[in-house]
Each structure stands twice: as structure tokens, then as C-alpha cells.
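Fill in residues.
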């Protein structure tokens, strides 16, 4: 009888090759290091105002001028307080370098603040203190010149006599420029204590110019070219308005307008 003899089979063990992980993605290397800041970090040029200076002074007006050493402004604003303490703001074009402030009171100190604006924001400010001129005072009589009655008073006292009605003559134009108007008038009857000239400026703000009672003419500065103004001259006595005359005047044209705007 045959018996099967088992044949030993060698045990073969296979080891799977270890999978290698994929290499990490290559990061881009900048060719040149960044040396300039991004545009958003670049600061804009800051506009700067030069010194505010006085160009002219009268009893009723002050002329100011300034420079802009760096960067233009969109516009300017001049602020101050009038004789009654009320704040006033005068808008000025960005191309201007001077302004005349009219309607001021004589012998009074004013503080002016000039603001430079860009995109509606105040960028810089300069200030100055200016005193207006002194109005010509009436010369008082010396003690030796005061009249002394030699005879007893026979006429009724002045309080019993009706005061004469002061009257203003016609208001006329003496000269016109693009930025000023000269006016003159007469007083046919008894004199006034003083006068007041009223008008509205280019921004529509009311202006009042006090004038000495002995004056018969006035020049109104700081006006805008080719603009129609209405002037009202009031004569005052005893602090009351006694009479009024008015006139409409159009200022002259600038040279560029007269040439038709051609270069």
C-alpha cells in the first residue's frame, strides 16, 4: 500500500514596498524682495498755508493776503466775530491769495482765522489780530472858544423850537471797478450825525458800513466782478434813521471776461 508522503513547501513571506509620501508642493519664491510700500500706504502731500499778513487797513475794512507753499487747497474760509460778537464766515475760492473784509467798526481789534480746506476738511489754519483805523473825530471847541451869551436870552430855548428835518440828496456813482464801487451824495438841509451804508455781499450776507456825518462819499471794497448790488444809504440823527436813498450798481468785468475768455 502506498502512503502519501507530504512534501514540505517553503514559506515565502513578501514585504510590501513602503509607499513614499508625495513631496510637498513647491512654494513660489519671490524674485525680488518687496522694497516699496503698497500705494495705499503712501501718504498724500499735505497742503500748507503761508503766513497771514495785512495788506491794507481803513476804519471800516481790513485787507489780508497769504501764500500756499505746498499743495493747493480746494477752498478757504475766513472766520471772525463782528462788532456785535456774532461769528462771521467768509468763503473764498481756492485760487485766491487775498481778501478784503468790509463792514467793520473803527478802532476795533479783530482776530481773523483763515482755514484751508481739502475734500471738505480743514487741513491747515493761520490767524492774525488786526485793529481797524480810527475815524476822524470832530474837533471840540477850546474853552476860550465856547460861545458866551452877552445879552439875556430872548429866543425860546432849542427844546421848544421844532428841529429841522435833515434830507439826503440823490445817491450817485462816482467810480466802478471789478471789486469796488464809489458812491457820493449831498445833504441839502441840516447835517446828519452820521450815515450807514447797507448792502448784501456776494454770499448774500448783510453788511453795514458806518460813515462819518461830515463825509459825502465812500468807496465800498471787496466786491465781486460783474455782480449787481443794491446800496441803501441811511442818514441818522439822535440815533434814529431820518432819511434814506438807494441805488443799484453793477461792478465791472474782469479783464478775461472783457476779452471774451480767449487766451
Amino acid at each position: 500500500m502506498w502512503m502519501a508522503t507530504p512534501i514540505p513547501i517553503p514559506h515565502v513571506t513578501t514585504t510590501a514596498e513602503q509607499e513614499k509620501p508625495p513631496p510637498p508642493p513647491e512654494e513660489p519664491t519671490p524674485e525680488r524682495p518687496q522694497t516699496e510700500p503698497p500705494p495705499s500706504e503712501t501718504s498724500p502731500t499735505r497742503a500748507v498755508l503761508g503766513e497771514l499778513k495785512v495788506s491794507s487797513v481803513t476804519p471800516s475794512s481790513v485787507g489780508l493776503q497769504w501764500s500756499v507753499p505746498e499743495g493747493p487747497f480746494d477752498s478757504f474760509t475766513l472766520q471772525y466775530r463782528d462788532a456785535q460778537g456774532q461769528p462771521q464766515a467768509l468763503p473764498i475760492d481756492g485760487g485766491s491769495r487775498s481778501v478784503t473784509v468790509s463792514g467793520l467798526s473803527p478802532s476795533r481789534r479783530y482776530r481773523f482765522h483763515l482755514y484751508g480746506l481739502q475734500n471738505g476738511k480743514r487741513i491747515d489754519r493761520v490767524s492774525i489780530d488786526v485793529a481797524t483805523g480810527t475815524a476822524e473825530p470832530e474837533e471840540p471847541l477850546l474853552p476860550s472858544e465856547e460861545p458866551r451869551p452877552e445879552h439875556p436870552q430872548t429866543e425860546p430855548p432849542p427844546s421848544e423850537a421844532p428841529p429841522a428835518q435833515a434830507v439826503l440828496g440823490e445817491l450817485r456813482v462816482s467810480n466802478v471797478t471789478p471789486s469796488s464801487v464809489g458812491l457820493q451824495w449831498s445833504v441839502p438841509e441840516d447835517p446828519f450825525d452820521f450815515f450807514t451804508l447797507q448792502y448784501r455781499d456776494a454770499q448774500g450776507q448783510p453788511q453795514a458800513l458806518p460813515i462819518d456825518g461830515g463825509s459825502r462819499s465812500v468807496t465800498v471794497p471787496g466786491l465781486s466782478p460783474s455782480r449787481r448790488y443794491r446800496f441803501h444809504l441811511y442818514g441818522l440823527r439822535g440815533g434814529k434813521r431820518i432819511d434814506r436813498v438807494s441805488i443799484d450798481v453793477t461792478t465791472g468785468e474782469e479783464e478775461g471776461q472783457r476779452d471774451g475768455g480767449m487766451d
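DSSP finds one helix and 14 strands in the chain.
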